[in-house]
Amino acid sequence: MKYLIDTITQVIHRSSYVGDVCDFHTTPLTQRESSQDENYVNRLYEETSYTKCKHGYQLAVAPSQMHL
Ligand SMILES: [Zn+2]
């Protein structure tokens, strides 16, 4: 799994699910980071103010939970 990290909005996107709703394309290349390191991504999420993109992460959960 590859992650795309937006250092302006501080949102972590899953690269397979990144789309127009993410607004990731408006972020300059220099402000983007990509990582395949899940530990690094989780550390950002848990220890900093980074959040996980709802769009990509919702798609990743079981379909029965998608309406939540
Ligand atoms: Zn996203």
Question: Which properties best describe this structure?
Answer:
25% helix, alpha+beta, 68 residues, 2 helices, binds zinc ion
Task: Tell me about this structure.
The protein is α+β, with helices and mostly antiparallel strands. It has one domain. Helix content is 25%, strand content 21%. It is built from two helices and four strands; from the N terminus they run βββαβα. It has helices at residues 38-47, 54-60; strands spanning 3-6, 11-14, 32-35, 51-52. Strands 3-1-2-4 form a four-stranded mixed beta sheet. β1 and β2 (11-14) form a beta hairpin. The longest helix is centred in the middle third of the chain and has 10 residues, at 38-47. It is globular, with a radius of gyration of 12 Å. The N and C termini lie far apart (24 Å). Bound molecules: zinc ion. Residues 13, 18, 22, 53, 55-56 line the site of zinc ion.
Brief digest:
This protein has 68 residues and is of the alpha+beta class. It has helices at 38-47, 54-60; strands spanning 3-6, 11-14, 32-35, 51-52.
Q: Secondary structure elements and their pairing?
A:
Elements (H helix, E strand, L loop, with lengths): L2 E4 L4 E4 L17 E4 L2 H10 L3 E2 L1 H7 L8
Parallel strand pairs: 2-4
Antiparallel strand pairs: 1-2, 1-3
Bound molecules: zinc ion.
